[in-house]
Amino acid sequence: MTSARRLLGALLLPLLLLAGGCVSMPEDGPVVGAGVGDEVDADMGGVPAIDARAPQDGQSATEVVRGFLDAMQAWPRELSTAKEYLSSDAAATWNPDGLVTYVEAQPPQSTTSDRVSLRLAGADRLDARGAYEGALSAYESILQLSLTTEDGQLRITNPPSDLVVPQTWFEARYEQLALYFLAPGGDVLVPEPVFVADDDKLASTLVAGLVAGPDDERAARSLLPADVSLELSVPVSDDGTAAIELTGEATALTPTENAQMLAQLAWTLRQDPDITAFTLSIGGQRIRLADGEDRIPVEAGARLDPTGYQASSLLYGLRDGLLVSGTPGSLDPVDGPFGEADLGARSVAVDLRGERAAEVSQDGTTLFTGPVRGDDDVTTALQDATDLATPAWDHDGRLWLLDRTADGAQLRWLRGRRGAAVEVPGITGEQVKSFLVSRDGTRVVAVVRLARADEMRVARLHHDQRGRVVGASRARALEPQEAPGRIVDIAWRTATTIAVLNRLSPASGKVGTIGVDGAPTGLAGITTTLGGATALAGSPVPEQVVYAVTGGGLVDLSVAVRGPQVLDEGITYVGYVG
After folding, report:
1. CA separation, residue 547 to residues 333, 334, 439, 487, 575 (Å)
2. Among 32, 204, 220, 441, who pairs with 234 as Cys (CB 3.0-4.6 Å)?
3. Are 380 and 366 in contact (CB under 8 A)?
């Protein structure tokens, strides 16, 4: 993967040059927006072009640094002007690896004739693929630039290893999409979120990301050959066909594996609205499906849907102790044992096809499983638990359970008569309030109760190539939400984002959205304040509505004017499958 990652860094380097306003750094104030070109190019997401200004003779250290920061924002993309602000040695080797965004570049903390020091407030970092790495520490947020004199002009000798750009125009020009890899067992796709520039190089950026491969191959893998590279951009014809040419040697794959590899590309490229199909050549060899077709529609690979192939879109809930399903205004008892007998359940989870259900008893000690429809009996799957959270189903029919014991949370899975405990450092043994498992079975998200606030943590679930769960990564904390304190509930918003309900006061709460990588979701997420919300009902399918559950009913969080859709009396729980 090393050579592929180096290639990706080179490919993404120009993509990381964003625009939206030149930076002006006065001696006695913060960096502010300055002159922007008037020309708007539709191929660059409809944003204005920015012409980088070359250095002028006799500039002071502060002016050289200001010009360098401005030049890193050239749009369309180019680095040659920014390199003019560097010493000859620095310019020859400068190859920014990632991207740092900041809210404000605060005034120079110290300035001399050969040194300028700035603090980047609200700084975050993306790696070369565009994957979010988190907030910079206080130390990392200090930008210290040294200068030397060459041919009578001051030039920077130690440029940062990342491009440094304002967050405002980053948000205007980048969007969060996903690279689609495969679960180790190959039976489902796994989305990995990345930020990419919305320009005419989008297809090239996405393909380059796939070539680089996943970060954690125990949670996701790629069937693209490890040693291939994308040396040219990906052209898109007028009929929407992307032509992908990879150099290197094609790997011998079975017909199934070949279709899985093409599905990775199909799901990744379908995010570009200009692409309807693609062709793939590796080392000059055209890759085809088993039927000989070499023009692959981006709708290919439906069975590998990470949100569940043909998953039910209905809501499920409990009303007067009976399992009900349908739409918010019409939830009726299911035609099966759970719709006929009140088992005294407090929560329920239904598998992705809407075929089997698992109910947790009121005291949290017992788990009942059985069919949603039909005449089969309900089974007591577990009866010695301490305090079960609401379970979760994945695409492979595994039922995930989290028991809040006296020794902390214990995670396990069940499938029929089989099952096993899974140790998740950072979640196992902690005081966990609730949890989610992604439908692709590769992520677990937990709300951990701490002394003064709750903390969301995410871990990757590891599988072998037969699809068996073999362990998990250490859970890491996601960035704190704007509304600190206690978390009332969490739910999937998309396959890579989570809706979070925070308590603001006894009578009000705030719903926000955060990425599974900790990245803020910006305008694409949900941010709203509402009263009386006690839970969330969400789905990773973007087209399905995320609801806030209130005493008056379900509130659709996707619309500006929100009136609750009244629920039938006696409803005590509601949610989607999974």
Report:
1. 21, 22, 19, 16, 9
2. 204
3. yes
